[in-house]
Design a protein that fits this description.
By secondary structure, the chain is α+β, with helices and mostly antiparallel strands. Helices cover 19% and strands 14% of the residues. It has three helices and five strands; from the N terminus they run αααβββββ. It has helices at residues 63-74, 89-101, 112-119, and strands at residues 122-125, 128-132, 137-142, 148-152, 155-158. The two termini are 24 Å apart. Mean pLDDT is 81; it is low at 1-34.
Length: 171
């Protein structure tokens, strides 16, 4: 595992089409209904993720874990192949390195401080909400009811905090 350089570095814009292998489509047209089982946000983007379920070794696999792994990928801490929606040893080590490099408690637990720091990198880039990673931009969409969605195979898919529905995680 290599720590990411502080400051500088390069960033590659990633189109939604390029992320097709990362995400699966499931929701019907218009998106899923508002439900606490989805990753949601409202108002200012920066605080959208602070109220999510805490992630650590042993949590059940979910799209939320896949989202966190995608953040680590966008910042250069995990390879794309490590996006599995399961919080294992590799995710824990990458999280601790990421936390240490961002002056957070390097405990491997993704709670309000880690989600809050990551959330400050969310930006509007219409029609997307984009996580501005240190290496890649990760396009998302805050859809109906504030549900965070990813694009795959021509459809948007709501991210669940309680289940795995992403194709990349079901291989």
């Amino acid at each position: 595992m290599r720590p990411v350089r502080r400051g500088g570095g390069w960033r590659t814009a990633v189109t939604a089409a390029a992320l097709t292998p990362l995400f699966a489509a499931m929701c019907a047209a218009g998106g899923p209904p508002a439900d606490p089982a989805y990753v949601t946000g409202s108002g200012a983007l920066a605080d959208d993720w602070q109220n999510q379920r805490w992630l650590r070794a042993g949590v059940p696999p979910s799209d939320l874990v896949g989202l966190w792994q995608s953040v680590l990928w966008a910042d250069g801490y995990l390879p794309k192949s490590a996006i599995t929606c399961a919080y294992g040893t590799e995710t824990g080590e990458a999280t601790r390195t990421w936390q240490g490099n961002h002056d957070l408690s390097a405990d491997g637990i993704v709670g309000p401080a880690s989600f809050g720091f990551a959330g400050r990198r969310l930006a509007q880039a219409p029609p997307w909400t984009v996580y501005r990673g240190e290496k890649y931009d990760l396009p998302l969409r805050r859809g109906r009811g504030g549900i965070y969605e990813v694009y795959d195979a021509g459809r948007f898919h709501g991210l669940r905090s309680d289940a795995v529905t992403l194709a990349v995680c079901r291989r």
